[in-house]
Each structure stands twice: as structure tokens, then as C-alpha cells.
Amino acid sequence: MDNLQLSGKELHDTLNGLTHINRFLGNTNATLRAVQNEIMACTEPLTIIDLGCGGGDNLLAIALWCDEHSIEVNLIGIDGNLHILDYATQQNTSTIDIEYIKANILADDFVLPACDLLISSHFMYHFSDEQLIDFLKKSKSNIRRKIILSELSRSSIAYALFKIGAPLMPFSKMVKDDGLRAIRRSFRRREVEQILLEAGLTEYSIQWKWAFRYLILVTVNNIP
Asked: Quick check: helix, strand or coil at residue 134?
């Protein structure tokens, strides 16, 4: 998924595969529950940005839940591939409009729009540690409440299990290759803690989730 020009059937097969994996491993539900807690604790509509939103699975889950409970929310997805954003737009079956923005998130001049919650799922590993620290430092002033990240936990066991099991999975070669690459680039807990501390983010929790993942909740406290 590093190829920002990827399009057509190969892209659609890859995004469909990732959607099924995220649902099966509980990633989408874990992110949704964390967002639900924040929405229910507020009396005003929140603006939520999904960084590296891909096919929009997280935003769609949030939109459908807000639809069901008649909750107003502003949803924005940011990704670098216009074809992915077109796909995400087509998948929106809710009555809530989801805004999608094409941007190179890894570029030095990328500026995060103002939001209440910044969420991201299996994307932060695309940054180097130094890039991620710099991004968090310069972006935290644009986040009013919290950062919610779902990231893989780097593990030799996870890598071995995925490598053995991948050939048996009914997914495209790109999904399988991307999975191995994501595990290799992912984080250990102490690395996450060091990155947050160096970015000046000291109020956080890191929860280990099934299938070698962390749910990282960071309180930013820029509420006027």
C-alpha cells in the first residue's frame, strides 16, 4: 500500500482483503469503541480525522454508529492515493457525509487540519521514529482532545505466524506482502513510550489487544 498510484482491480482486491482482516482481528471494533467513549462524553459534535484512512473502514463504522444513534459528527479521512479515496467514498452507506482529502502525509509540509480526535490504524509505522516524533510535536496543537492509534506490536512470533499462515489466506499477494512489511516496521511498547515522551505527550495509555496490536490513547488537552 506504499504505492500511491495503485488503482483498479488490484487496489480493490487489496482494500477488500484488508477490510476483512481488520474485522476478523477486531481492529475496527477496538477503534470504534474508543471513539464511542469520546463521543458519548461530549455534548457537542466532534470533528474526527482518520490519518491514512485507506478504504475508510474506521470512518464508515463510526458513521453507521452515529447514524443509528442520531449523533452529529464531522468525519474526515486523509490518504495519499486518490483512487483509494474514491473507493472509500463509494463504500459510504451511511447518511453522514464523510470528507476525504488527498495529501502526502509524510511530506515535511503536511499540516494536520484542526480536529477533536485524531485516529489512525496501522499507518504510523510508515514514519521513521524521528519523523513520527516531529509530526506529533507539530500536530498536537491542532488536536483538541485525544489521539487514538491502533498499531501493530512488533513480534517475531507474529511475523512467523503470519508468514506461515499467509499462503493459506484467500487474499491477494499484495495484502500478504503488506502484512509482513507492516509487522517488520511496527513498534515495541518501549518504542511507543519513547516516541510519545519525546513528542511531549505524557498523558497516555497503551493497551495490548488480541492479535499483536496496541490501542494507544493519548490525551492532548487543547480544549478551550
From this structure: helix
Sheet strands (E) in 138-223: 143-152, 204-209, 213-219
Q: How far is CA 215 from CA 18, 75, 189, in A?
A: 18, 20, 11
Tens of each residue's pLDDT in the chain, 224 residues = 455 555 566 666 767 767 766 666 668 899 999 999 999 999 999 999 999 999 999 999 999 999 999 999 999 999 999 999 999 999 999 999 999 999 999 999 999 999 999 999 989 999 999 999 999 999 999 999 999 999 998 888 777 777 787 676 666 677 677 777 888 889 999 999 999 999 999 999 999 988 888 999 999 977 76
Separation of alpha carbons 55 and 112, rounded Å: 19
Please, are residues 27 and 213 in contact by the beta-carbon 8 Å criterion? yes
pTM: 0.88
Report the candidate in 120, 49, 54 with the shortest Cα–Cα distance to residue 85: 54
Ramachandran region, residue 137 (left: φ > 0; alpha: ψ -120 to 50; beta: rest): alpha
Pick the CATH number of 21-151+189-219 from 3.40.50.150, 3.30.930.10, 3.40.50.300, 3.40.830.10: 3.40.50.150
Q: Are 81 and 5 in contact (CB under 8 A)?
A: yes
Q: Which of 130, 170, 132 is nearest to 149 (CA)?
A: 132
